[in-house]
Amino acid sequence: MELNQLEQHHGGIENSATVAQVSTHFSPSITASGDTDISESVTHQLLPVTRRRQILVLISSFLTICITIGFNQSYGVFQGYYVSDESSILPLSEAKSGALVAFIGTLGAGLTWGGSIVINPLMERTKDKRYITVSGVLLMSLGFGLASLATRIWHLLLTQGFLYGIGSSMMYFPILSVAPEYFDQHRGSAMGFVLSGAGIGGLVLSPVIRALIAKISIRWTLRFLCFFNLLVSLPIALTAAPSRFTSRRRTHIDYSIAKKPAFILSTVAAFLQAGGNLVPLTFLSEFSTALGYSAGFGAVLLAINNGVNSASRILTGVAGDKFGRQNTLILTVVGSAVTVCSFWLASALNGNKPLWLLFVVFYGIFAGGYNALFPTTIAEVFGMQAYASVNGFIYFIRGMGALFGSPVGGAILGDSILKNYRNVIWFDSALLFGASVCVIGVRYFDAVDKKGWKWRA
Fold this sequence. Notes:
The chain is mainly alpha-helical. The chain is 75% helix and 1% strand. It has a two-stranded antiparallel sheet. The longest helix has 42 residues.
């Protein structure tokens, strides 16, 4: 890319006097891998960056997560009302189909991640990625607006599920895929802060959506979200930061990476963790009601879980920088599995409310860790130059996992009564323990590839 072209990037990275001073960046993850070709180990040139630009990237990325993932994590509030006899906008026969109603939110979340397989190549072929981000915001709002007119489940699947999911993916990846490039020494902490936006978004949006539905109905709540999304998201989409790389990065997975056991286990872990991670969030409000709590208190618990999750993402990012990102990631995935098969299972077996409250808090602590750390571990294990392609593919796999977990859980559940949740919990435990085994395997094979074990990794 010519320097005069670089200066024309919207917003710039620095002033034109500084842009000419292209910095040189060595990717230690690439050069340390041992079996990478010399051509792959060459110096990668990055445009210089100011502290002001770093702060702007932090804020815009954080708000992007708040909106896109925050809406996904708040869908459980809608689900509680969609399946309700009193407040549902669906026919009674369809409102009782818990698995299909759960699939609406799962489709939106799955496409937010799974859309990466299309969005990442599109980004590399588009001169100005604001065309993508602005189109994404418009599709998200269109999805909410049209959902307000829905009378059948398939209407909601097409609008609040499909249209919203595609739109959120178009907003999410152009902004989040470049964020790690702007941070070197404290990348874990920075991405932990950025990804904490998911919990903050859920913490704010869950009670707000519940209050709006109670006051103005589901349909007018969806219309409100249509305009709210335009108001908040359009400025973010219009100021999306460009990549710091001076050359185009690959959007397909290099065969030398794809054949590595670390890569294979990373993709399996992504599928299993995404499927298992969303199951408790999808059914949190419903399970709270089955325990005897009100639907309103169920929404409050979802908000509390999101708030704890948000704080956890920041703290695990800091811990990852200090104790090793892979080490911390392993701890959080194992912790998620243990809390599901202990606190949640015990609560379902005997209707114990205090154990359920403990689960809401501790699952929030552990579940945020993987989401906060896996983007930084991708950069660490596979190198920054391969980050866009590997991250895009693994997010696609996470999207497929999200489309698998909650719908299968809903099919296993059937009617939302306490005893029916036991098999759902065993299913979720199996997914999360499987993900635990895989991330431990990634840690081992990464050390093998780099020809040396490090306790802090």
